[in-house]
Design goal:
This protein is of the alpha/beta class and about 325 residues long. It is built from 10 helices and 8 strands. The strands form 2 sheets. A 6-stranded mixed β-sheet has the order 2-3-1-4-5-6, with helices on both faces. Helix 2 crosses helix 3 and helix 9 packs across helix 10. The radius of gyration is 25 Å and the shape is elongated. The relative contact order is 0.12.
């Protein structure tokens, strides 16, 4: 007895051909972070997606990383190794999309030259893949340093974990890439390509030629994620009048104890000294009254209202 075919998620039907997402940008710009987050999101909505990180292929080819000299554009031997790794990774992309049921592959690498991007475009054309570029541009030294401390310090490239050495070597690695870096050009050379530029971790965006539904979902997601970490506090509203009587649902206001709770919450948040604090509530009285006690701007969202609670009169 043959097995029933696996049911596909609704989003899978919105991709009429495999898509290759190509990351672009200098090191320490959050490309790998975005790749992982985007992949998790696309899998979550039902589109089989996998990341192909070129750094992994490079470390397999070169077992021991010595210094930034490997990334110099005039290091001919290293350039041959790096190109070979890219070709091997693209062959794995091909297998994933054509033989393993994948629908989107994320090619996570710097891809900073037109020569490399043209190679990828030719590969995609040969295999009838759509291509969408995601370029991360950042010139904020604090963000770059933060990315190096938080991510590169634990990289397999630096087993000794010497902070000063890691920072010095990685900044020199970035300078190697800057020599040949050619940003995506929406006005001329790349005007017909599909891409999004994420500028200074989300301060600005530039979107060019979105081809289909999935690409629009990618754009929407990337415009709403944060490359840098931040804290989210989840908090219940204060005790409501209905809580006093063991009732759920309804739209009762806060009890006296609920109002006391809101004041204590206000004091707690003041102690945290949170810059640009944003508060979201539902549209129910008890949440609004809790937020009003904080004396900060807040937004009401219908989607945060409780569901499946009803009032029954006996």
């Amino acid at each position: 007895m043959s097995a029933l075919p696996r049911k596909k998620a609704w989003a899978s039907y919105m991709t009429n051909s495999p898509t290759l997402i190509v990351m672009v940008g200098l090191p320490a710009r959050g490309k790998t972070y975005m790749s992982k987050k985007l992949t998790r999101y696309l899998n979550w909505i039902g589109v089989p997606t996998k990341v192909f990180n070129l750094g992994v292929y490079r470390r397999e080819a070169v077992q021991s990383y010595k210094s930034f000299e490997f990334f110099r554009h005039d290091n001919e031997e290293a350039m041959k190794i790096r190109k070979h790794c890219a070709l091997v990774a693209l062959e794995d992309v091909k297998s994933y999309l054509l033989e393993e049921g994948g629908q989107i592959a994320v090619f996570d690498a710097t891809n900073t030259t037109r020569e490399r991007r043209d190679l990828i475009l030719d590969f995609a054309k040969e295999n009838a893949f759509k291509v969408f570029f995601v370029e991360s541009v950042c010139d904020d030294p604090e963000v770059i340093a933060s990315n190096i401390w938080e991510v590169k310090l634990s990289s397999p490239d630096y087993p000794e974990r010497n902070r000063d050495h890691v920072m010095e070597d990685f900044l020199k690695r970035i300078e190697c890439y800057k020599v040949t870096y050619q940003q995506l050009d929406p006005d001329d050379y790349d005007k017909d390509l599909s891409f999004i530029k994420v500028i200074n971790v989300g301060q600005r965006f530039l979107v060019n030629t979105v081809q289909d539904y999935i690409q629009s979902k990618i754009v929407y997601y990337l415009m709403n994620i944060h490359v840098q970490p931040r804290t989210i506090y989840l908090c219940r509203h204060g005790e409501s009048e209905h809580n006093l009587h063991g009732r759920i649902g309804g739209d009762a206001g806060l009890s006296s104890r609920g109002k006391q709770f809101a004041q204590v919450l206000k004091e707690f948040l003041e102690e945290q000294q949170i810059v640009d604090l944003k508060v979201w509530t539902s549209q129910l009285k008890r949440t609004i009254q809790t937020a009003e006690a904080l004396r900060v701007p807040y937004e009401q969202w219908k989607i945060l209202n409780e569901i499946d609670a009803v009032s029954i009169l006996l």
